[in-house]
């Protein structure tokens, strides 16, 4: 028996017990362990027992790395974007357990990704889609427009809000950025938003005439059914009777009195009406002028009564 015990002792690395004692001392002196002992005086008796080495060591490692957090991308934790949290054991009244939970940086990142997924767009640059109200300088010439946009977001109720905004003013004053900030704010509240740059979108639809592709039809249906639709730079497109009457008309007809639409334009509402009346093919058919004017008025009747007209002023920020 004695020789067997001697053999067992020989298998134990030299100074094992001293190193073990040093580890236990290090654990006991760790600020996190001190915090846990103060917070849970009845649940921390076994924290330095050998059976807890693994989970305690992992917990302390996460605490140390999180205390010197280098940011989400450079996170050094084994499970990136997670932190170790302490919780009372669900059944053992004298024990603690440690769980990995998403840290605030990962939650914020995932929330931002979700916002991006709730904002669909066609031909809108990223700096517009990522705009926020905090980014927009509230200079006097556009302060009322920003206030109207913020009010729209704060008062928006899915399924109930039907009135949108018509933001109009000179080029470069920030109408699109205000609209982009609306999209961001609503997406944070889980509202699906679709923002479309009208000239390029209508050109795409026009190029698809006759093909009746499912992709184009799906896009048109998305415009008809989005909880909030933003039509950016309406009036800048080269309008034809077909795009006016067969594309814009049905979209707005479907949305009016049901779903809010937000517009940005360089044109006043009366100038927009004239723009729709002067469809390219109207110039070739002078005899149909009155008919084109009536159809233009019909489009305006689907816009003006269902929006708040909001002027946007200020300097042209594209020119510095």
UniProtKB/TrEMBL annotation:
Organism name: Paenibacillus medicaginis
Official protein name in the record: Primosomal protein DnaI
Pfam families: IstB_IS21
Sequence intervals crossing the membrane: none
InterPro entries in UniProt: IstB_ATP-bd, P-loop_NTPase
PANTHER family in the record: CHROMOSOMAL REPLICATION INITIATOR PROTEIN DNAA, PRIMOSOMAL PROTEIN DNAI
SUPFAM superfamilies: P-loop containing nucleoside triphosphate hydrolases
Domain IstB-like ATP-binding: 160-279
């Amino acid at each position: 028996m004695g020789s067997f015990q001697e053999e067992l002792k020989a298998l134990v690395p030299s100074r094992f017990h001293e190193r073990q004692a040093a580890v236990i001392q290090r654990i006991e002196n760790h600020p996190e362990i001190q915090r846990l002992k103060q917070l849970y005086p009845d649940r921390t008796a076994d924290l330095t027992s050998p059976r807890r080495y693994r989970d305690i060591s992992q917990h302390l490692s996460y605490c140390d790395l999180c205390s010197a957090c280098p940011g989400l991308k450079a996170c050094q934790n084994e499970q990136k974007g997670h932190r170790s949290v302490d919780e009372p054991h669900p059944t053992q009244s004298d024990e603690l357990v440690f769980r990995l939970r998403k840290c605030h940086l990962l939650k914020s990142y995932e929330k931002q990704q979700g916002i991006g997924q709730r904002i669909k767009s066609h031909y809108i640059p990223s700096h517009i889609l990522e705009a926020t109200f905090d980014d927009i300088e509230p200079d006097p010439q556009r302060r009322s427009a920003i206030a109207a946009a913020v009010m729209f977001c704060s008062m928006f109720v899915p399924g109930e809000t039907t009135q949108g905004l018509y933001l109009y003013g000179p080029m470069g004053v920030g109408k699109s950025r205000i609209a982009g900030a609306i999209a961001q704010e609503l997406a944070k509240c889980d509202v699906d938003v679709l923002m479309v740059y009208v000239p390029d979108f209508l050109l795409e639809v026009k190029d698809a005439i006759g093909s009746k592709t499912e992709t184009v039809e799906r896009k048109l249906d998305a415009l008809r059914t989005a909880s909030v639709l933003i039509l950016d730079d309406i009036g800048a497109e080269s309008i034809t009777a077909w795009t006016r009457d067969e594309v814009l008309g049905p979209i707005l007809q479907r949305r009016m009195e049901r779903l809010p639409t937000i517009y940005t334009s360089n044109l006043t509402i009366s100038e927009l009406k004239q723009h729709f009346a002067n469809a390219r093919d109207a110039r070739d058919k002078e005899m149909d002028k009155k008919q084109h004017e009536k159809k233009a008025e019909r489009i305006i009747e689907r816009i003006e009564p269902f929006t708040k007209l909001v002027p946007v002023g200020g300097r042209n920020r594209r020119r510095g």
